[in-house]
């Protein structure tokens, strides 16, 4: 005879939430079955931990148009000998790039927002989450989008991923 499930046992309700900022997306599985887990503090702490573990938060977004190469602008490979001679200069360039990345991100450095219209989050109309009451009253579904920004950012902005075929 197969074992019977106890009616008093709780199943953990894991919900997958997408936290988005500009072109960055962090997909986090969150246990939202208890009131304590439905808190602004919990959301921010989970997001801050995942951002730290992925290398930090970039404060500067790269422009797609400037990163594209023209057909005439083909990079010519350099020899390793030249790379060794220019190593000091390249280290300075890398230091400049990492200056715009926050590695020790705190939960208080993040601001979260919900879309005004859940069906069209890419319209970039956001309602800032200021307390737990706005989160606890909502029913979250898998892959719902929550926007986030750094406290130094001006506004919330989310762009939809575009794939070239």
From TrEMBL:
Name of the protein in its database record: Uncharacterized protein
Organism of origin: Debaryomyces fabryi
